[in-house]
Structures are given as C-alpha cells and as structure tokens.
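User
New here, explain this?
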Amino acid sequence: MDNVTAKVARQYTDYAYPPPFDDLDERLARGQVDASDPRVFGPMFLPEGRPEGEGLRILSAGCGTVQAAVLAHSNPDALVVGVDLSDASLGHQRYLREKFDLKNLELFQGDLSDVGRLEREFDLIACTGVLHHMADPDAGLRALGSVLAPQGAMFLMVYAPVGRTGVYLLQDAFRRIGLGQTPEDVALVRAVLAGTPASHPVQDYRRRAEEELEHDSGIVDSFLHPQDRAYSVDELLDWVERTGLGFQGWLENLFHYPDALISPAILPRIAALSTREQWAVVEKMVGMPSTHCFIARRPDAVHEVSFEGEDWLRYRPYRFPMADIKYEPDAGYRIHCAGAQFVVNQHEAILFTWGDGARTIAAMLAEEPFSAFPEADRREFARAHFNRMWRLGLMMFQR
C-alpha cells in the first residue's frame, strides 16, 4: 500500500464517510436515490437496454458506508459487490446487510486498483468520489475498465475545479499552517468557516454541502483530505480517452449544454463549436457544478443519444427523476428541475407526461392528438422537442 493510500485508508477509518444512516426503507420512501442506481438512471447508463438474462452484476468501487447496501436493497435482482479500503465503512455496510437481509450483497476490503483479483466482470460499475483521491487515478480507472463487461457501463463522479475553488483555497491555507485531522483541528476548521467573509468563494460550496458539513467526516473529507484533485471538462475527457475508455455522456445535461444557463445573446457563437468545446465553455461561463457525474464505457459500446436519422423514433422516453411538470393558469405548462423551470406548450406537455418508458416515440406519434397532423410535421415537432428535453437534462431515452 503506497503512502497516499495508507493515509486515505486511515482517514476513512477515523472518519467513516459518507455519514452513515440506518434505515434504507425510510430513505426510499422520502424519494432519496443514489445517482448510481440503475433502477432510477438505467436509461442513462445503458441506453440500448439491459443485457438479457439474469439481473445486473454491479460493482460499487469505494462503496463507503452505504452505497453498496443501497444498490442491493433497491435492485434485489442484481448481484452487488462492494469494495472499500476502510473496514470501518464496510462494518456499517455489513450491519445494513444483516438488518435488511441483503443476500445479494458481497463485501470486500481492499484497494480498487486490485479489483482484478475478484476475477469477475460487471455490467455496471459505480465509482463516486473515489478516483480523485487516489495517488494514480489513471491506474484506478484502468483497473475498473479491466473488470467492465464488454457491453457494461461505468457511472463515475469526480470533482470539478470551478465549483470547488473556495475549497481548494482553504485546503492550501490549512496545509500551510499544518492542520491535520485531529478533533482539535476539525474544530479550528469550523471556526475558520464561521468567520469566513461572505464574499469568499467557499460560501457557495458551504450552502450546497450544508448537511454534509454538519458532520466531522464531511469537514475532513472537504478540507483536510490528504489527496484531492479535480478535473476540468477538457482534463476529464482526455483522462477517459487516455485510459482506453469511451465517454458516453453526462448524468445531468442541464449543467453541461448551453441551452439553459447561458445568455441567449452568445448562444449562436457557442453553437458553432464542437460539442466538446461547448461543454468546456459552459463550465467556465456558468462556474458550476462542483462535481462531474458521467458515464464511461468501452469505446465500441458507447451509445450516444442522437436525433439525427430515424433511429430516435425507436427511443422510449423517460422523465428525468428530478423533473416534474406543473400547469399554472397564468403561466401555462412549466417543467421544473434542479431549481430551473422551462416553459412548454400543451402538446410538448403531453409528450413529457407520457415519458414513462412504456412507449416508443413512434408509438406516441401514432396516438391522438398527434396522429391528426401530417407525418412529416409531427416527426419534426417531436424531433425538436425531444432533442431539447435531452439537452436540458429533462428526459432520458432507451431503446
């Protein structure tokens, strides 16, 4: 075990993370879901559909205190394998396994760089908040790729630099004055945060991470971590390609495409760029998010959602889990998601409401009220609508 890995293992032994909870049923009842859960976000991971046969084989790499148990509980037909450096974190996973009788959950202590020793392949690999803490993230991502099934997908989360600017300023300051991870030093961090000026870049992060920062483990993970790096859009895409994988897309398109959060005056200039350049520009203009959540696969398995040609007519639309539609007498139909809202007309509202995965787009267009319109007109209307819904992160699509 290298020095960085040893330090990280010790941190998560002393400060189990994320702050554990005991009731999986209560979390589900409140609608709180894990972003790596295929029951909820499956169309984003596997747009072409799930593999035939038995349930998914899922690896939770760096599972922390709860993730593997959450996935096993939510996906009883799947086999879930959790791997983590910290036996303290795994101890809570073992508690949840026993409490909820999760016979489909297996747990192993170890470095995710060594997952090849499991001698298994996985249809879905979830690795959130781990790779950016490794001494060699490239080696970690290659190791995950080595156990990915040929048609499998990886859901990954790593830090983004712009939204964590304030975090990195304070990390550097705390490092310079020699703060460690003792309870006394954690208390000093809290004192500094309480006295930080309102204009400091960390304040936006504090608002978004308020619940997490109530716990000492959250303070340590954010401000006193021994190994922490972030990836810009350009760095992330280069990293994925460099490690032999293909980039399939973002989990939340809302924060990466320019359609919603950029001034309309500049949109024509941005539209002239490649998609990759658009993502990079949006990151710098919007200044968020603090993490990048994305899907990577083997290059020959990447399935990009496209509304060119005719294949899109076979897509089955799903409303994005956080998106909801409301009718307001004075404002008409509005779709709400992640604090933003988008106006749609009555026919667009119908298509959005129908987005439960039960029908293809072609089947929708064959029904009233759309069947009354000329075929070419309804197709062009649907193409524009669903392409907009995709770019705004309001709908998912699966074959």
